[in-house]
Amino acid sequence: MRAVLMAGGSGTRLRPLTCNLPKPMVPVLNRPIAEHIINLLKRHGIHEIIATLHYLPDVMRDYFQDGRDFGVTLNYAVEEEQPLGTAGCVKNIEEMLDDTFLVISGDSIADFNLQDAIAFHRAKKSKATLILTRVPNPLEFGVVITDQENRIQRFLEKPSASEIFSDTVNTGTYILEPEVLKYLPQDEECDFSKDLFPQLLEMEEPMYGYIADAYWCDVGHLEAYREAHYSALEKEVELQFPYREIDQGVWIGENTYIHPTAIVESPVLIGSNCRIGERAKILAGTIIGDNVTIGDDAELHRPIIWNGVIVGEESSLSACIIARGTRIDRRSQILEGAVIGSLCNIGEESQINIGVRVWPNKRIEPGAMLNINLIWGNIAHSNLFGQRGVTGLANIDITPEFAVKLGAAYGSTLKSGSSVVVSRDQRTVSRMVSRSLIAGLMSVGIDVQNLEAAAIPISRTMTPKLGVAGGIHVRLHPDRHDYMLIEFFDTNGINISKAKEKKIEGAYFKEDLRRVQAIDIGDMSYPAQVVDTYRKTFETQLNLEAIRNSDTKIVIDYVYSVSGAILPQLLAKFGCDAVVLNASLRQRAISNIERENLLSQLGHVVEALKANFGVQVSANGELLILVDESGIQIRGEELTALMVNTILTAHPRGTVVVPMNTSSAVEQIARRHDGKVIRTKVNPSALMETSQNTPNVVLGGSGDMGFIFPKLHPGFDAMFTIAKLIEMLTVQERSLTQVKSELPMVCHKSITLRCPSKTKGSLMRYLIETESPEKLELIDGVKIKENHTDNWVLILPDGGEPLVHVYANSDSREWVDEHLQVYRDKVQSFIIQQHSL
User: Fold this and answer.
1) I need a surface site. Which of 56, 435, 539, 638 has the fewest CB within 10 A?
2) DSSP summary character for residue 705
3) Do the beta carbons of residue 265 and residue 276 sit within 8 Å?
4) Would you put residue 199 in left (φ > 0), alpha (ψ -120 to 50) or beta?
5) Can you tell me where the transmembrane regions are (predicted)?
């Protein structure tokens, strides 16, 4: 007698276990489900098997080959084009089925007496016999009713609770006569339960149900998959164990070492070539695959661990599933019902919470607490916040579900009934994320003032004006155009403090989210006259008379990406001629190459129009690059120095705030004007806070981050920078070229090196220990200064990426080149040494 093993299923409900494995090849007791089915067939005298395949067919063919090693003859039929369904795949091999044959599902564990079922089929002269069983909850299965003779009377596939008419269900195992296949169409998808059996019933063909009094488990979902293991260990089902039973209920493979201090409770199954560390606890119900290492003091309470897994010291695994090749670092916790896909890396002291699923090849950072499924992104972070706000891949890391929870976490740190400003750039993905954030905020009783698409300077201005508790701005990341950036403001419009970030992270990861009654859900409103309010604030900080008399012509390039490009309207009101380029809003972020091309075009337009200068505005109103009257670009360090020179000429003895990595040109300029320079950490929050909280600050920021005018609002504002520059150049009667000619000649270079995140701390300690203490400045990174000169080297770890930046600054190019090479070699040799340990 031949059997057809239906093994084409993709096992969607078993994901992530079936992401790279067909469902019949998922292991139970460290052997594929299909192998247990083949053993069942073989026990009952069926040695000729045809396996129908569709999803990842080579996995099964490579494992079983011709079946000789498993005591059977195995042939394969692959559905190449499309799945044909349970009946269609059998119709496809009709010519190989010329006698009574058995069909069995490839995703169930059972110990049916198949010989009894076959004898029943023949005694009844049945055309189709279904092996049935009785289950407590038939909702997930096809329900069958039989008469007193066991002839089938009625079918109902997966009934609702109100439709249940029996507890007898179809197990997906059938004994069929070849002539029933004539009722099926050729090369079409069709199903036994939905298509063939109802037709046989209608044609009054003899069709019977054999009710099996035996174990059966449809391994259709993850809970059933776990239950199949536990039932097998308790010997509720007759399965062939792949290892020797060395003690009652303890099966252990060959060449496995268990430390004498380890505790092993029965029933338990441990594969071959395993290593169990000191004081490890392997509690009852645990299944461990081949080539698995369990670290010292680890505690395993009923997990199912596949081959090649490494479990670190003091880790705790409870009733979870760990797929092939995953590494779990020390002191990690994986809780009940969690499922970790193959080849993942779970960082030290991380926690995977109840029921969370992690797709294959993911990395969980040390200390991370994962509460939601990790499907699309590559990494689960231990922190939500990076160098500036929350970042992640658009619609992969930053999804609607993530944003709803983030909004609720932020709102839960505020008093119920508080108000928050929400704004965004013009892109559709930003609108989607902001709406999700708003939903989360409202769900915890927070009112929302929705500014919709607005430039960030406008949002920062409106936050204190509206008297709200804080604000959120959503946009594409200015440096990484496939990433989102979500920034949070405090009540003054400054980026929130690290302490506040930690509170939001705590609420998010611990799921400590407030839930309010329906009557207390937050409201949403749309503030009026937002642009007018910003304009009036803008005007209070300018010498309007100077601008009106300037007769300035400028060219502004908005690179298709600034929401609320209101500057031309303001300048026109002041009598300035502003020519606008690329002001329409695009959904797609432009590439760096496109941006550079537009910048080059801007230079040509400025020259052609004989404009005073040109400016390219980006980052939704925060950043700018200048082009002088000759079409030459002014950016980065040169732009910083130009702005400091211009502002200190207008406000001598003023204070400027710049990041640690800015060139010493700012100090040289400040000395000329009896001014003061304060350096901060290289992040936006530090610049904003210091600029806002220090007296007499006239300018903050840099050419790479943008410029802050604290009396206007606490954030970066490219639009106000342009207007202020027009005012200052007019009053000082200078052009950009003239200002440039006055700037100090300083050489400032940098290089970037790869550096693993876990090495950054030890690198900084090494540098501090090997340099003279009197030369060190430790505001951000490690700065090594030469006394009585402006010569210095700064080694600065990147805030988000596994990188370290090395800056060198001097009046001498030779000094810069020499020291940049010296510290490059020093840093690289340390990183290599650490990597080899």
Assistant:
1) 539
2) T
3) no
4) alpha
5) none
Quote the tokens at residue 717. Answer: 């504002």
Hey, what amino acid is at 651? H
Q: What structural domains and CATH numbers belong to the chain?
A: 2-218 (3.90.550.10), 243-380 (2.160.10.10), 390-526 (3.40.120.10), 533-741 (3.40.120.10), 747-836 (3.30.310.50)
Please list the alpha-helical segments (H only) found in 342-489: 400-412, 428-443, 456-465
Average pLDDT, the chain: 89
Phi/psi for 37 (5° steps) reads -65, -45
pLDDT tens for residues 114-129?
999 999 999 999 999 9
Element (H, E) at 738: helix 736-741
Contact 320, 352 (CB under 8 A): yes
257 vs 221, residue with greater confidence? 257
- Is 457 in contact with 508 (CB distance < 8 Å)? no
For residue 17 the two structure tokens come to 């276990």
β strands within 368-513, DSSP E: 369-370, 379-380, 390-393, 419-424, 447-453, 470-476, 483-489
How many C-beta atoms lie closer than 10 Å to residue 423's C-beta? 30
**Distance between CA 619 and CA 479 in Å, rounded?**
9
Percent of all residues in the chain with a pLDDT value above 70, rounded to a whole number: 96
pLDDT score recorded for residue 755:
87
pLDDT at residue 376, as a whole number: 67
Structure tokens at 798: 């990147």
Q: What is the CA radius of gyration of the chain?
A: 35
Q: Is the pLDDT of residue 82 over 80?
A: no
User: Bridge partners of 573?
Assistant: none
pLDDT band at 137 (very low <50, low <70, confident <90, very high): low
Q: Is the distance from CB of 752 to CB of 805 less than 8 angstroms?
A: yes
The closest alpha carbon to 491, from 528, 466, 509, belongs to 466
Cβ neighbours of residue 59 under 8 Å, at least 6 residues apart?
Answer: 21, 22, 25
Q: What tens digit of pLDDT does each residue of 697-727 get? A: 999 999 999 999 998 888 999 989 998 999 9
pLDDT score at 9: 77
The residue type of 14 is: L
DSSP symbol at 692: H
Gap between the Cα atoms of 304 and 318, Å rounded: 9
Burial degree of 82 (CB within 10 A; 0-12, 13-18, 19+): exposed
Phi-psi label, residue 116: left if phi above 0, alpha if psi -120 to 50, beta otherwise: alpha
pLDDT tens string 368-382: 888 888 876 666 666
End-to-end Cα separation, the chain, in angstroms:
61
Residue 378 is predicted with a pLDDT of: 64
Closest CA to 254 of 263, 262, 244, 265: 244
